[in-house]
Structure formats: C-alpha cells, structure tokens
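Q: I'm writing up a methods section and want to include an example of the input and output format. Could you take the sequence below and give the corresponding predicted structure tokens, formatted cleanly so I can copy it straight into the document?
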Amino acid sequence: MRPAIWSNVSTVSTVSPVPSTDPPLPDAHPAGEPSGDRSSSDQDSGDRRGDAVFELHRGGKIELALTVPVQTREDLSLAYTPGVARVCTAIAAHPALADVYTWRANTVAVVTDGTAVLGLGDLGPAAALPVMEGKALLFKRFAGIDAVPLVLDCTDVDELVDTVVRLAPGFGGINLEDISAPRCFEVERRLQQRLRIPVFHDDQHGTAVVVLAALRNAAAVTGRTLGDLRVVVSGAGAAGVAVTLILLAAGIGDIAVADSRGIVSRDRLDLTEVKSGLAQDTNLAGRTGSLADALRGADGLLGLSAGRVPEQAVATMADDAIIFALANPDPEVDPVVAHRYARVVATGRSDYPNQINNVLAFPGIFRGALDAGATRITEGMKLAAAEALAEIVGADLSETCVVPSVLDERVAPQVAAAVAAAAKVEGVVRPS
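A: Here is the clean output for your methods example:
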C-alpha cells in the first residue's frame, strides 16, 4: 500500500556535506506569488482588460511550489547532487520506492487532446489548457493531489495511448478529460489494459457517480427506490453511456437511451459498437421512436446532451417526475419549465439548487485510489463512491437538496474512504 503521507525529500539522504559559509540563496520566488510576467500581452484585446474572468486567468491558475528548503549549499547537496544520486540508485534497485521518495504517488496527469472541450467541441489542445489547469486546481483544493495538465497535439487513438503510456512512469494516476466520443472509450480501455495505475475518464465516470448519488436520493424524496424508476437518458456520448452503465449496475428499474436519431434500440442498423451494446441491456419495454416517445410515462429524464427537450414531451412524464438537465450553460429543459412537471430538478449550474458537478466525485475517487495503492478504478469503487456521496446529504435530504454542495468539506474525505475500502474488497490494491 502506498503511504497516505509522503516523506519530505530533504530527509532522504544522510550525506554529510562540507559546511558552507556562503549566505543563504534567495527564493526563486516566494510561494503563493505568481512567477513570470502577468502583464498584458500585445495580443490581448482591450475589451478583455478589467474582465474578472480573464484577469483571474492571466498567467494561469496553478504553479509549482517547493516542499523543501533550498537556502544553502547544504540544502542543495541534499535536494540535488550529490545526495539525489543515492535516491536514484535506491529506486533503480527497488522501483516501488519512487512512490515514497518522489511526488509520484500523489500526482495525477490530467490529459486531453482538446477534441471535446466542455460543451464547445473541438477547440484543440492550447484552448483546452485553461480547463485542464482548472481541473488541476480542483484536485489540489479538494483532495491535496498534485495534478499536471498535459494537452497533447494528437488525436489518433494509437498516438494518444502510446504517448500517455510513455509519460505514465512519472504519475500515480491518469485523469482523461475532454476527449471526444467514441474515441474516448477506446483510449480509456487500452490505457487500463497497459497501465497498472488508475486511469479514469472523468467526463464519463465522474458524471456517472454524481448522477447515481443524486438519483438515489431523488427517488427517496419521492418515496421510491432506483428499482422503481423508469428513466430516459438523452445523449449517448461519453457521459450518457457511463451514466447508463452505472445505473444498470446499481439496479435501475428500466432505462432507455436516446441519441440524435431516436431511441437506441435493437432494431436500429446505424448503431456504433458501444451503442449496440447499450441496446442489448436497456429499453426492456422495447420502445422505438423519438426521445418524446421514450419520455411518455417515464419517471425520470437525465439530460446529457446539448439537445433541447420540448416542453410538450416533458409534460407527458409520470407524476413525481425527476429531471436532471445537465447541459451547460443551457440545460436541455429550462429549470422553470422543468419545475412545472417534475418534483425534483437538478442542473449542472451553480445558480440553481441540486448542482450535479464532477468535483463531487473525482477528487475523492482519486484520493482513495492513490491512498489504497489501487492499480485501477473498478465499477465497485465507483458504486461505493456514489453511495458515500448520497449518504452525506443525510437529514438535509429534500427536493432542493439531493446532493451535497460542491464546497462541502466532508465530500472528498468520505468518498476517498469508501473508495479505498472498496479497492481492498475488489482485490486491486498493489502489495505493500
């Protein structure tokens, strides 16, 4: 098992350097202060100056910080040569020591090719960097995990997989982000096969965990269980597929998936391999037709696409309906409209109650996986994360509180504990 608290590098070596009379070396720049020139670029448009969003992003949102002092020659001899050589030879003899004497065990790569940035589409790697920086910020803020944004200038699946595999020795886990479907499924699957560290596509599984937790609680608010519900998923991309699979694993009563061409059903001849698999395991009633046809009498709508759902279709849902309209910034169903027909409404936005946000899942999931020394993140670990997340709501459960706040400090530790325990049960913990 990897240690939950990592050794300070300055304690590694017992080299006895020659005492120095040199004055202390100045800090490269004080911790917490931005490095580099954050002044306006010549290319920066005047209409962005003074804009709070752009000003916050100027120069980036994250930086590296030192964990050991580097003030004297003695410090240098411990942190770098000659002391570091002893650590290198120790790791060469026992590679697992890299998890003790480097930052690896607490560091995650946040990897994208920029092909599905937020809801904006294929913007390319450079334009994806602000999102990846934001992800790294959230890893650090909520789970104390160091995360490194890696924006890759390639979109071929073979190249993506090979590149990540070559970079993996420096990381304790891989968080895939904003890679378009259906390529994302293949990239994740192949990386999981080739690496013995957690590989997690957050757009799929982070969303799925939070939706499951929220739906479990929403069902309870309306006096039902997951097994009592028939739900419809709008969207068969990365999130739609993952949500469907985790709900099936959790025992949903029935679930149908609709893409831009209608219900994903066995009689369709235009399905991808992934959608064909969904068609075999979903839509027990054998419904065909459009999303509107699927919604007639349904207990729940899970919006995981950018497509708008007309009010006329929402109006045909069952009493005490549950609507999660998660597209950002414009939900598939306007929340005002949704409340006319649904008892519980959730969105992906922070300005409405019941915000379904991945930050409720991925920090705690990775924290638990890293602390346990897990070699992968299993379905059981994701189910455990969802259950822990749902339980945090506790006595606050209501129509306007089916998930905790994204700022609830209990979330990451409790999710992490559940994930770590599940990793042991699932038998995916690396031997000590």
